[in-house]
Amino acid sequence: MPVNSRQVGHAYERQLRKRFIELGWEDCQTSRFASKMMDDMGVDFVETPPLHIQAKRTKNQPNFRKVLAHMPVDASYNVVYHKIPNQGEIVCMSASDFEEIVKVLKHEKIWK
């Protein structure tokens, strides 16, 4: 059982990694394991294209704008998974990224 915030965060990353593998990113790894460079850029998972994913498990809501601003600016979409104990999870991303994803889904007729 995790006893400090660092251990809680690492446990949350491992839990999310399993979920991402089930969602189809079979090669997903935590950046702590696979890429210190990506970890240093605020990306917690590798091999999750087209997403850069940061995981936060905290008692308080982080400043999502600051977290997203610290993440890489490239062709991938930056998202933050956030979990507060006993309050569930949310995913946060920029409005422009969200709107681009919606446009692609509509253009490809995946979403009408």
Descriptive report:
The structure is a single chain. This protein is of the alpha+beta class and about 110 residues long. It has one domain. Helix content is about 40%, strand content about 20%. It has helices at about 5-20, 30-35, 35-40, 65-70, 95-105; strands spanning about 30, 45, 50-55, 75-85, 90-95. The strands form 2 sheets. Strands 3-4-5 form a 3-stranded mixed β-sheet. It has a two-stranded antiparallel ribbon with strand order 1-2. The radius of gyration is 14 Å and the shape is globular. It starts with a helix and ends in a 5-residue tail after the last helix. The model has no long low-confidence stretch (mean pLDDT about 95).
Helix and strand composition category:
alpha+beta
Number of helices: 5
Q: Stretches where pLDDT falls below 50 for ≥5 residues? A: none
Using only CA atoms, what is the Rg? 14 Å
**Mean pLDDT, all residues:** 93
* Helical proportion, percent range: 40-55%
The SSE string, one letter per element, is HEHHEEHEEH
Mass-distribution shape: globular
Q: Whole-Å distance between the termini? A: 45 Å
Tally of extended strands?
5
How many distinct domains? 1
The quaternary state of the protein chains shown equals single chain
The largest sheet has its strands arranged as: 3-4-5
List the defining traits of the structure above.
112 residues, alpha+beta, three-stranded mixed sheet, 5 helices
